[in-house]
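TASK: fixed-backbone design
INPUT:
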């Protein structure tokens, strides 16, 4: 977890404007995959949504006991990542883990655990179709700039920045994939290659590996800041979670 002041100090680069031509991730899916993503009865990610809805109600100090029905989470995922009152940047997973440890007094679920993925999917699904609306001013500004700097830095043995694929080559094919604008709006997503549901940070690790760069830990400060920057690029675009991907 990172704090505003530290992140601001880490930042010097303040680069070019956000690419003008960013399109929703679903626009890059094949027609079959897009139709399947839209149809809960044919979308394996819904198994996690249902499990998350069951978890929401489980135990004496359940999520529901404080928050009410899970429908109260409508629109919440569209506002994350967000800076908490204590200055820490939290994505949805981090926000859930906080309630788990601080409100429920239980040990954290753990990043990429089935329980955390399920709750994240169930909560994110309540924002499906709603426009991304993350705060990028105030305390969030320095995190976003840190994410932007990461996005624009050439990395790995292939010496490629994110935008060299996701801006310059969006719409082109790479190893059987159509390169999208690299937004996080579909996560957590069920990826056929994974044969399971996975988080955005798992996907980011795959892109780091793709350019032969260091794969950062799930939940690392750089991936969190990057997640905020990606969300700022996706501002106004629909949440697609749970997504369905090749
Ligand atoms: C004891 C009461 C309590 C329990 C139990 C609890 N929460 Fe919370 N939760 C809160 C409070 C209070 C906040 C607001 C904290 C803040 O804004 O600083 C919150 C905030 C949240 C938010 C962010 C909401 C927003 O609008 O930004 C999410 C998501 C969330 N909780 C999920 C969960 C989940 C999932 C569980 C069960 C694993 C859970 N909570 C259990 C009290 C609780
Ligand atoms: C060598 C080209 C390449 C580079 C560089 C690259 N990616 Fe990707 N990325 C891909 C491909 C291919 C996919 C899978 C197709 C797609 O969804 O775009 C992908 C998928 C993604 C996705 C998932 C999109 C979705 O809707 O499923 C995100 C988010 C993403 N990349 C972010 C990044 C970030 C951030 C960086 C820089 C750290 C990066 N990528 C660097 C090629 C690349």
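OUTPUT:
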């Amino acid at each position: 977890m990172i704090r505003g002041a530290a992140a601001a100090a880490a930042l010097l680069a303040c680069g070019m404007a956000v690419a003008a031509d960013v399109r929703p991730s679903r626009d890059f899916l094949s027609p079959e995959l897009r139709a399947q993503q839209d149809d809960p009865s044919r979308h394996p990610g819904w198994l996690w949504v249902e499990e998350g809805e069951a978890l929401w109600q489980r135990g004496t100090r359940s999520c529901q006991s404080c928050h009410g029905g899970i429908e109260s989470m409508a629109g919440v995922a569209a506002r994350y990542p967000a800076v908490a009152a204590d200055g820490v940047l939290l994505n949805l997973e981090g926000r859930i883990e906080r309630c788990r440890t601080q409100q429920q007094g239980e040990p954290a679920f753990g990043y990429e655990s089935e329980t955390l993925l399920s709750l994240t999917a169930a909560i994110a699904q309540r924002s499906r179709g709603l426009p991304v609306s993350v705060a990028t001013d105030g305390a969030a500004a320095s995190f976003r700039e840190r994410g932007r700097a990461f996005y624009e830095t050439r990395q790995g043995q292939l010496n490629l920045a994110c935008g060299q694929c996701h801006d310059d080559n969006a719409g082109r094919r790479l190893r059987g994939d159509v390169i999208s604008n690299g937004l996080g709006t579909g996560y957590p997503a069920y990826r056929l290659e994974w044969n399971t549901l996975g988080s955005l940070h798992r996907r980011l690790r795959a892109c780091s590996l793709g350019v032969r760069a260091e794969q950062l830990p799930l939940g690392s400060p750089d991936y969190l800041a990057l997640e905020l920057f990606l969300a700022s690029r996706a501002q106004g675009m629909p949440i697609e979670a749970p997504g369905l991907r090749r």
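COMMENT: The chain has ten helices and seven strands.
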